[in-house]
């Protein structure tokens, strides 16, 4: 896709004062969001699932959908998350100091890059004295500790692409690629071009990413494209894959990372498990290379004040009718079972809620947590047992253990959630138009989409021939947790209606002129006003 055709799809730069003199005249920095105060940063990183107590009235199958929000919509920033954000913020901005389109330093890098492509030599240069202000950072941690999720939240606070019309630059703030399983540099380059194309709507995979060009040409082209789009930081994930690299492959990959930072001027973050940390620190030279801005080592969460704060926040999101408050016993059990591995904490909490609905107890207890742990999380038992032992040699054996597939377990458990509903015959397929109109009405009633869609499907399947107004009545009864009762034939004579209870429809009907019966029923709240809804959905 041409440069002109992508400009309409990428936001144009909006410049603001970054607060520091050295940043002020650099459009690549001024186009970034400002460095946030701590309270604003915590609020920006935090992710809360939608929660409405009214949803407790929904049947169990629908509540399973609501509980699933926790898997993708819960993030509580802790101290080590804020530390990582501060380092990334500094890494990106400092890296741009030596690549400023306003003073020509970016174009000097590009001229050197062109020379490298022509000579297929990363050390070649057209101009001497071109300065790199880039640095590197390494993040190592056990599986499930939240490395990828935290990076996703932090990087999500930046626009990934920004167009600068005055400088003819389409800035790429960050890019993340996975380290090839065998340390193949060609594959790294191809993956890089692929990711750039996805973000910028370019075609570098075709023009620059052909293996027949050779490794040296691919590497030089990758570096040139990185500077052409003023790449703020390149994240290389899964660097423990270098353990599987063929002889010499890992060292070549290390050398390339160092060249990216020191020569090309692009900051690099390397992310991997503790196994990668050991591999990188095998020699002093390798350790020094990856510690430009320090190395962060994340482990399981300790049981401290931050753990308690996290559990209190998470425990608020229960879709159980007999929810039990968090106490020391439950908190202790959660830590013992999960060992503070964040991914397992959330998955155990989700599966426990589904099991509580399936059993009908609608309450999480320590016994239930242990039962779910034994039944559903068997793949991680060895790793967690090693963590409980605090023996490094055992923990090292399970460093890269795959986390359990939560979706598979949820489907199996959701199938066991049985509602005591009358059996109905299979209904004919409802016209799409009626389904769409019903969904529009549910949206107007502010029912969340993840609840509205299965609710509409179930009601339409059970009552395909009912008019839309009657279906809405079914929905309101559904949301209140009651079932509309069938009217019973009255044997009270009309002459005796005035002696019936005040809320009886027959008494309301005869308590005034016949022509005003509708008004009296409406005043008593017996008529559901759909007027505003029909106007938008009809």
UniProtKB/TrEMBL annotation:
Stored Gene3D superfamilies: 6.10.20.30, P-loop containing nucleotide triphosphate hydrolases (3.40.50.300)
GO MF terms, alphabetically ordered: ATP hydrolysis activity
ORC1/DEAH AAA+ ATPase domain ranges (all copies): 133-278
InterPro entries cross-referenced by the UniProt entry: AAA_22, P-loop_NTPase
Cited Pfam families: AAA_22
The protein, known as: AAA domain-containing protein
Species whose genome carries this gene: Halomonas saccharevitans
């Amino acid at each position: 896709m041409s440069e002109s055709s992508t400009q309409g799809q990428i936001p144009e730069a909006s410049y603001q004062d970054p607060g520091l003199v050295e940043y002020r005249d650099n459009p690549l920095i001024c186009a970034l969001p400002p460095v946030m105060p701590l309270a604003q940063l915590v609020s920006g990183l935090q992710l809360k699932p939608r929660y409405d107590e009214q949803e407790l009235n929904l049947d169990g199958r629908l509540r399973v959908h609501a509980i699933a929000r926790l898997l993708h919509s819960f993030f509580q920033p802790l101290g080590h998350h804020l530390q990582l954000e501060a380092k990334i913020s500094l890494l990106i901005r400092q890296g741009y100091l030596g690549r400023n389109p306003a003073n020509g330093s970016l174009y000097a890098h590009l001229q050197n890059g062109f020379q490298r492509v022509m000579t297929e030599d990363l050390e070649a240069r057209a101009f001497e004295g071109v300065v790199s202000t880039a640095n590197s950072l390494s993040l190592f941690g056990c599986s499930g500790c939240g490395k990828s999720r935290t990076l996703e939240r932090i990087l999500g606070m930046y626009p990934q692409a920004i167009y600068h019309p005055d400088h003819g630059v389409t800035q790429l703030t960050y890019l993340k690629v996975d380290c090839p399983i065998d340390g193949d540099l060609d594959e790294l380059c191809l993956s890089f071009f692929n990711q750039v194309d996805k973000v910028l709507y370019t075609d570098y995979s075709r023009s620059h990413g052909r293996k027949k060009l050779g490794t040296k040409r691919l590497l030089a082209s990758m570096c040139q494209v990185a500077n052409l789009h003023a790449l703020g930081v390149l994240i290389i994930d899964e660097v423990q894959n270098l353990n599987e690299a063929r002889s010499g492959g890992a060292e070549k990959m290390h050398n390339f990372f160092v060249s990216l930072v020191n020569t090309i001027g692009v900051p690099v973050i390397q992310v991997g498990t503790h196994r990668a940390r050991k591999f990188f620190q095998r020699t002093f030279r390798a350790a020094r290379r990856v510690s430009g801005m320090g190395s962060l080592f994340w482990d399981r969460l300790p049981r401290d004040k931050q753990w308690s704060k996290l559990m209190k926040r998470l425990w608020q999101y229960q879709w159980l009718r007999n929810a039990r408050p968090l106490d020391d016993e439950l908190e202790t059990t959660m830590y013992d079972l999960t060992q503070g591995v964040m991914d397992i904490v959330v998955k155990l909490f989700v599966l426990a809620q589904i099991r509580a609905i399936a059993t009908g107890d609608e309450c999480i207890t320590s016994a239930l947590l242990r039962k779910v742990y034994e039944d559903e999380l068997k793949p991680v038992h060895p790793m967690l047992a090693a963590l409980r032992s605090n023996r490094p040699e055992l923990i090292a054996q399970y460093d890269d253990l795959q986390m359990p597939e939560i979706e598979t377990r949820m489907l199996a458990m959701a199938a066991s959630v049985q509602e005591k509903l009358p059996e109905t015959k299979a209904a004919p397929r409802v016209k799409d138009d009626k389904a769409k109109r019903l969904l529009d009405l549910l949206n107007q009633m502010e029912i969340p989409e993840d609840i509205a869609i299965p609710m509409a499907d179930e009601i339409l399947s059970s009552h395909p021939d009912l008019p839309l107004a009657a279906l809405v009545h079914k929905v309101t009864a559904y949301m209140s947790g009651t079932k509309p009762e069938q009217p019973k034939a009255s044997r009270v004579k009309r002459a005796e209606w005035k002696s019936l209870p005040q809320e009886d429809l027959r008494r309301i009907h005869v308590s005034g002129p016949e022509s005003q019966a509708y008004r009296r029923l409406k005043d008593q709240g017996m008529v559901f006003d759909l007027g505003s809804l029909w106007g938008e959905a009809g």
